Amino acid sequence: MQHPPIYPFPIPSPENSKRNCVIAFTTPQNYAGRLSELIQLKGWTPLWCPTLIVESTQQTISSINHYLNFTSNEPYSLLEDFSALAFTSRTGITAFSEALSINSALPLTPHGEILTIAALGKDAELLDQDFIGKMCENPERIRILVPPIATPSGLVDALGLGQGRKVLCPVPLVIGLDEPPVVPKFLEDLAKKGWIPVRLDAYETRWAGAKCAVEVVTRSEEECGFDAIVFTSTGEVEGLLKSLKEFGLDWEMVRRRCPRMVVAAHGPVTAAGAESLGVGIDVVSSNFGSFDGIVDALSHKWKSLENQES
Question: Which segments constitute the Tetrapyrrole biosynthesis uroporphyrinogen III synthase domain (predicted)?
């Protein structure tokens, strides 16, 4: 597994010259590079502690291809039966694109009803011309939808009323952890809007093992060698709690060891999930379409504290 760049010393930054902080974050590899870079740009030191492994497998690619391949009885793919394709994560788009790349034929014929493809925030950048070209030779059949609020519920609202139409939902297959309520609620909300949601396990999300808590445990023993921890999904929180348990620790013990630690959540969905697991959140990003929001929220938090101290 290739780690994002982690520097042994903070990078000077005029904006945060008084506070060169170490920021632990539990993001999986597919998002780690982006968040690590933003942390460095703030003049802080990133400390990557991934609690989840997120990746596609031969089984999940096969599941996607079930909807992309032409059937023996019909001259079209099962994807033609859907009015929308709703992605709730960047990994879902990547896995779908991977399956498209190994498919010999385009899944959509040039003529037919428009397929709406929806994605959240910066994830929609992956729905580029290359992706659309793998779907259909007629780009007019594809409509890209990016909801103004980058949450699953915002995606449901943006899709509108389903009126009995089908929506394909590439989501993770969670292994070794309890599935967070985000995906089941997303599917339930779509059904309430009149859609017929079809769940597609497009990739796997697995616990990374006890080793992911080593840095947190070690640094918490050293008078807390980090200033903040950032969670970008509920699954990451559960993964860390499970790892801490392997070391005979719980979250309250870490909190007592690190009284100055700031706990940050990327958006209200992650914050609510963390709170439900007993992890109190100090900072929630209001701009959660990208990771810029969470690093800005941390910066604002520390500036407020510095103003109070002065």
Answer: 34-288
Tell me which H or E stretch contains 217. helix 214-221
Confidence label for 19 from pLDDT (cuts 50, 70 and 90): low
Q: Which domains does the chain have, with CATH numbers?
A: 22-51+209-304 (3.40.50.10090), 55-207 (3.40.50.10090)
For the chain, the straight-line distance linking the first and the last C-alpha, in angstroms and rounded, comes to 44
Amino acid identity of 298?
A: L
Q: Would the pLDDT of 49 be above 90?
A: yes
pLDDT digit string, tens, across residues 254-276? 999 998 899 999 999 999 999 99
CA distances in angstroms from 137 to 16, 75, 84, 105, 174, listed in the order given: 49, 16, 18, 10, 34
Cα–Cα dist 102/255, whole Å: 48
166's CB contacts (< 8 A; 6+ apart) are 81, 82, 83, 84, 195, 196, 197, 198
